[in-house]
Amino acid sequence: TNDDAAPAGGVLGFTAGTASAIEGNDGAITPITFTVNRSGGATGTVSVDYAVTFTGANPAAASDFVTGQPLTGTVTFANGETTKTITLQAQGDTTFERDETFTVTLSNPQGDTILSPTLPTSAVGTITNDDILPIYTLQGSAATQGTNGASPYVGQVVVTRGVVTARDTDGYYIQDLTGDGNRATSDAVLVYTGSNPAATILVGTIVQVTGTVTEYASTSNGAGAATVTEITNSTFAVQGTAALPAPVVLGTGDYVVPNDIAGALAFYESLEGMRVTVPTPLVVGPTTAAGEIFTVANGGVGSGVTARGNLLLEGGATSFGNTDTVGGDFQPDRLVITNGLGQTLPNQLNVGATLNNVTGILGQGFGYPEIHATAAVTVQSAGTLTKTGTTLSGSATQLLVASYNAENLDPTDAQARFDTVASEIITRLNAPGVIAMQEIQDNNGATNDNVTSAATTLQKIVDAITAAGGPTYA
After folding, report:
1. Domains of the chain: total
2. Which of 269, 292, 301, 334 is the least buried, fewest Cβ under 10 Å from its Cβ?
3. What is the pTM assigned to this prediction?
4. Quick one: 375 and 258 in the same domain?
5. Which residue range(s) make up the domain with 308?
6. In a domain, 388, yes or no
7. Whole-angstrom Cα distance, residue 467 to residue 474?
8. 146: pLDDT confidence band, cut at 50, 70 and 90?
9. Cβ neighbours of residue 237 under 8 Å, at least 6 residues apart?
10. Residue 153 and residue 124 share a domain
C-alpha cells in the first residue's frame, strides 16, 4: 500500500474519462469540454500539458474542429484553484458521417504536483453525428453497390428517415418522402425488427430510424442473387404523418424490365423496398402451394408470352459448359405476387387469367423479384386454359409409352389419391401400354430404414386403375 503523501500542489487528472457533444449543422460551433481536477492539495501554481490525438474506429480529424483550434496546450492552476477546463470547438456540418472520436491526454506536470494515480489522465471525446442519411444514399447505386447490390454503408450505424409504407410480422418498410429523382437508386429500405413492429409504427407514420445497415441473403437464394438491404438493431422516433409516395408503375416508360440478366438485377435493385404497381398482371404459371402468383405486367404485351399464355426461355450465345445467358431472354420481367404482408390473394389461378392492378412493395424471394401486395388482389378475368390429355393412343401396331409423377405417393396416403392417379392415367394419358412412374415411396413411406421395395405402393395403383375400368398392369 502506497503511504506517500500527496504533493502540496495536489494530483491532476480528468474528472471523467469521456465527453461528447452533438455536432450541429453548417455554421454551428459546438464546445466539447473536459474538466481537469486538482485534488489532495492546492498549494502553489502548477501546470500540466495536454495533447489531442485522433483515435478510435472512426477517428476525428483537424477539419472537424474550427479553424485554428489548438490541439495541444497547457493548463495552469493558480494557488488554491482546484478545477480547470479544456474546451475544444467542434465544427458542425450537414454531411452524414459516423460518430467521430479523439483522445485528450495529460502529460508533463510542472510544479509540486503529479498525475493522478486514480483519476483518468486521458479522456475520449466523441463528436456525435446528428445528420440524416437519406435512404437513397444508404441504398447506393450500381456504381457504389457492386455486383451483389450491397449498400456502401454495410456494418455502419446510420440515422435515416422515411414514411412507413407497409408493416410485416418482423419489420416494416420506409420510403423517402421525395426521393432523389435518380433512376439508379432505391428510395426505400426494410427495417428488420425480428418480431411485430411497435404499435405506433403505422402506415403513413414518419419515423426517424437509427440502426445498423445489414445485407440479408436467404439460404434459398441461388448463386449470384442479390441481397436485401436492411436496417437492424434499430431504434425509432415518430415524427408525424404523411401521404405515401406514389407507386412506380412497372412495365411503362423508364420502368420496363431489361431482358438481360445483369440489367434486370440492377433494375430491381434500384426499386428494392419501394411502392410499385403492376398494371393488369397476366398469370403465366400455376399458383404455387404457398399461394404465389407468377405474372407479367400489361396483360403480357411485350413479354414474349406463348400462345398457351406462358413464358418461353430463350438461350443466348453458345458457350460450352456455361449457362447461355448472353443475348438470351430468361424472362426477368416475370413478377411473383405474394401475400407476404397478409393480404388476400385469389386461389389456384390458371395461366391466362388477368388481375386488376396490383400495388405492393418490391422485394425478393428465392432469388426472384416479388411484389408483396399491400391490398387485396382481385381477378379481372379468369383464364380459359383447361386441363387436357394426350391425343396419342396405342394400337395393335403402336405402343404408347408415358411417364407420371406421383409426387411421393406412399401406401399410407388416402385412397382418394390413388383414385385420382388412376383416373388421370386412364383419361389423360389414354391408358398407355407402358408407364414409367416417378416419385413412388417404398412400402413404409417416408420412414428412413432398410425397406426399399415399393411393391405395395405400385400394387395399390394397379388395383385403383383396374377398379376404375382401366387395364391391368403388371
Report:
1. 4
2. 301
3. 0.70
4. yes
5. 248-381
6. no
7. 15
8. very low
9. 207, 208
10. no
